[in-house]
Fold each of these.
Amino acid sequence: MKSCFVFGTRPEVIKIAPVYLYFKNLGEQVIAIATAQHREMMDMMVEVFGMKPEYDLDVMTHNQSLNTIVARVMERLEPVLMKEKPDIVFVQGDTTTAFTACLCAFHLSIPVAHIEAGLRSGNLYDPFPEELNRRLIDISCKYLFAPTEKAKQNLLREGIEENRIFVVGNSVIDALQLIRDRVNMISLRRKFTDSDGYILMTLHRRENIGERMRSVLRATTRFAQETGIKVIFPVHKNPRVRQIVSEEVGNNPSFILIEPVDYLHFLSLLDGAKFVVTDSGGVQEEAPSFKKFVVVVRETTERPELIEAGLGVLAGTSQQSVYSALNQANDKNLSSSENPFGDGKTSERIYRITRGDNVWC
Ligand code: UDP
């Protein structure tokens, strides 16, 4: 059985790599296809996991629009799939790469497996365009690998047949377990800071770019100045994000602004943080494994499990609501590192299910 794994961005590599490596280590025929939707940040992760893509579609262009990405992935992926004739194509999450690869495979009548199926915010425009991407992918896949029971229920509510849905956990937990024991976390993060107990921040969501992002940064500035707590912030490569960050906190001594770091360094920073402020999906899923409370700076969430387990707060994006959430987070001390998103066995489950062994379900 030949499996193609298609990915184009940082989070896709992190969540596809453990599944790909699991298949590969068992001697399965695997083909890695990089679209390079986000060139630099994708490459950084491919290297960490030691993947060597057989194909690099190199679709990224300067100031690329979503439609340009769709067109370029479609055009460049089709000949590869026609040549390789895989039995199955794996896509992950909700990116434009994932949606387009799914559509391309569907047109060629190749079955698709969706890793991280069933996440829904309930608002088609938030996150944008991810909520539409995930819905379109889930309609058309053969295998829907839902991370949690709630994700499965979302799919059932949309009328998707139960025999296509498998609750397997989130492969991000497999990824962090693969990496975590490989390194000395403390010495890695000493490159950026002499002491622990800082806030770790990431911001990048398209729908937050603009006034929402500015409000989050202003609230964090106020909190950091009042408490003396530093903020370590690997700033996303998106030029629009970088401009806002530079204007709002570029010269602020409370902020340690750094380039995006590879996964080893990011997990080491997570390990030393007091708590996390983020609009990222993956970071919300990883933080509980490090006993870190998460301030989710978004208006909606497709990961209610975090909030319901008391491991984070949906802070919104107004200055006042974010400032209150930061104070709430500062008082939290999580004792258990039980993670509602997975147990590190997702790759094994996906392997067994695609091989017809449904013992897990
Ligand atoms: N991450 C990283 N380096 C960084 C920032 C984030 O390795 O400088 C990782 C993080 O651990 C998480 C993933 O990137 O697994 C999240 O990516 P992003 O926030 O871009 O996307 P999302 O998860 O929101 O789809």
Amino acid sequence: MRFLTYGSTNIDLIFTVDHILAAGETLQSTSLTKSAGGKGANQSTALAKAGAAVFHAGKIGSDGLFLLDLLQSWGVDTRYVRTYDGATGQALIQVDRTGQNAIILYGGGNKAITVDEIEETLASFGEGDMLVLQNEIVHTDTLIRRAKERGMQVCMNIAPFDPSVFDLSLSMLDIIVVNEIEAAALGRVAQKSAYEEILEQLVAAYPGAQILLTVGAGGSYYGFGNERHHQPIIEAEVVDTTAAGDTFIGYYLASIGRGLEPKEAMYWATKAASITVSRSGAMASIPYASEVFG
Ligand code: RIB
């Protein structure tokens, strides 16, 4: 199976802070690191490091050319990343002393992707290929519809969630990945509902899609038809949770691409994510297959 991630490619500015900033507060950070990220590019990195054949598509400015070198160094095919006369997407990330984060995004190239570029890219893909999406770029609905017309499978991580997600052709998706906050919003249930209840709501609302619900320390849940699985977390020292979800998705999909069942794929995805949270940064923190599969 070939994977095409059409997604965000960001320059991450990571500020290490004692706690996440409150309104009106000014805080000194103990470190500042410029690194490579973007949910889309992180997904591509995880897929490639897991050993899958992956193409990354998106748009960057000249300030982001180093991101291409990095993606290529991990085996990602970047021929569908366009450059333009503007800024690369940026993420201002606060990481607190417990490893939790808060992120502000600037779209840049991610929001300058055109329908023509999408059509041109998708022309090289079809049946047997999977499109991987998140919610950080424009024309996502066009991507879903055109990919399905071409016989591709489509996996979307509904992150970050915003109400415009309901305008997307979500019922056409084959795999939906959400965390507990996104899931509650998508399933229109209270955030404090039991995870199993949120999962059931999503399975009922999107019967054509396999649902993967990731809930931090609560592990991950899978639902499709009558099939249900729960994978607990694998304990690790938490340094920085950035890109843990992206790692989970990349390793899950790469495992499915190798013919593993969802339950096994969840285990390997969880193991990979447990390594990611023990390191700082986004793309750079994602482990190689040898670290995960041994
Ligand atoms: O999921 C983590 C990513 O979210 C970061 O790398 C940042 O760029 C944002 O897209």
